[in-house]
Amino acid sequence: MLAAAFAGALLTAACAALAQDEAVSFPDPASAYQQEGSFVSLENLRNVAPGLTKNQVRELLGSPHFSEGVFGVKTWNYIFHFRRGGEIATCQYQVQYDDSKLLSGAYWNRPECEDMVKAAAP
After folding, report:
1. Contacts within 8 Å (CB) and 24+ apart, 3-12
2. Which tens digit of pLDDT belongs to each residue from 11-50?
3. Considering the entire predicted model, what is its pTM?
4. What are the domain boundaries of the chain?
């Protein structure tokens, strides 16, 4: 039990360190095959968490919007839109997978994008 808690703490720390690291980079939106992006369900975004399989992420968010390959792909990128009052905010979202093909972290291109999702939480 203690080992599981320790492993969870390490995963959380690793994800936080990566989120602050400049190594997380987002592709140019003009290179997306689905350049128009999509309006994603906020509830689905809130259900994205470490340990999900690629199929589970695809069910929640749809297929990635960039052509990132088929085999051995560890990063999926999305372009999401959110309605804020009378305006539409556009954000990029990235999910990363580990060697076991499980989600290891999820990142926004701008902090205010994550804030919008959290603010809309019930």
Report:
1. 11/50, 11/104
2. 444 444 444 445 799 999 999 999 999 999 999 999 999 9
3. 0.78
4. 2-119
